[in-house]
Amino acid sequence: MSEADGIVYSDVKFTRTKRNTRGTTSSEAEPTYSEVRILKTHPSTELPGSQQHPVSNGGSKVTPERVVIVVLSALLAAAVIALGFTSLDNMHTKQSFQTLRDELEAVKRNLTERHCEVKSYNTVQQTSPQPPVVKENDPCLKCERGWEQDGRQCYYFSIDLLTWSESRDKCRQKGGDLVQIDSRDEQTFLELKVREKMKNDGDMFWIGLTDSEKEGTWLWVNGSPLNERLTFWSASGPDNWAVYNPDGEDCVMMGKKAGAPDLKCWFDEFCKYTRRSICEKPAETGHFTLQCV
User: Fold this and answer.
1) Left if phi > 0, otherwise alpha if psi is -120 to 50, otherwise beta: which for 95?
2) Which of 32, 82, 112, 262 is the most buried (most CB within 10 A)?
3) For residues 272 and 181, what is the distance between their CA atoms, to the nearest angstrom?
4) Nearest CA to 221 among 249, 270, 187, 181?
């Protein structure tokens, strides 16, 4: 559209009064013309009530749905990483669990032995007129004088030289029996003690194992059979050597003075030979009167 299209001309007539030289005003009017230019504006083509929307610049829109997806993806990745670290920790934990449990059992045994304190009979008689009730798992258990304790068992290492049968009778008189070995730990304890007490290689100790009822069938003194997976025979035993004794070797002794401890120190022997012996009985409170602290 040209500039002329937007302009409208209009004539406006003004009247100016005319003075004469005498100072009076004449009634004649002198017309004056003036040009007025009016800019013609075009009405808006937009409909009433319509709103003008900004033109999109072509960029992508960030919607709430996309934000949620991004957050969930990040959380899932973090969870996968955490699971990987947890699995690795569990693997290391399983490898060391058995070792820790064994160490705990050793600590518990030491603490149990230190937990009990022997007090005099008169002192306890004043504080507790009734004898204490001994529970099955009571940790306050001790051995009488002359016996040596390992856990819940008491052992007596005799200095008397007797036959196997005589040794068993002596053990019974003391309230026990010839020792029955039920674990590797017990064998370790006994072997170390026997080494301390032996005077020479022949100074051995009877234990409660024999095959006198049936050759080759080894039984403990309580009648239970020997566990073949838990034996500690020496390299030469059992051989039932019958050169000097036709009856053979039906009783078992233990002991090894020389060499490093290797637990394999059982020997079958003629039951009529005289040896020292090991008696065994459970630890108990009995008349020893114990107090737990």
Assistant:
1) alpha
2) 112
3) 22
4) 181
Give the whole-angstrom CA distance, residue 33 versus residue 35.
7
Is the peptide bond preceding residue 238 cis, with omega within 30 degrees of 0? Answer: yes
One-letter amino acid for residue 209 of the chain: L
Q: Measure the N-to-C terminal CA separation of the chain; round to a whole number of Å.
A: 113
Query: How many residues does the structure list for the chain?
Result: 293
For tokens 């100072």, the residue is 23
Dihedral sign for Cα atoms in the order 94, 98, 101, 106: negative
**Which residue type sits at 75?**
L
Query: In whole angstroms, what is the distance from residue 234 CA to residue 191 CA?
Result: 13
Q: What is the pLDDT along the chain (293 residues), one digit of tens a residue?
A: 444 455 555 555 545 555 544 444 444 445 544 454 544 444 444 444 444 444 445 555 668 777 888 888 888 888 878 887 776 666 666 666 666 666 766 666 656 555 554 443 443 444 444 444 443 445 678 999 999 999 999 999 999 999 999 999 999 999 999 999 999 999 999 999 999 999 999 999 999 999 999 999 999 999 999 999 999 999 888 988 877 777 889 999 999 988 888 999 999 999 999 999 999 999 987 555 444 44
Which tokens belong to 43? 């009405």
Burial of 258: CB neighbours in 10 Å, binned 0-12, 13-18, 19+: exposed
DSSP class of residue 255 equals: -
Per DSSP bridges, beta strands 276-282 and 153-157 are antiparallel
Domains of the chain: 3-39 (no CATH), 122-288 (3.10.100.10)
Q: Which residue is it, tokens 């304790």?
A: 149
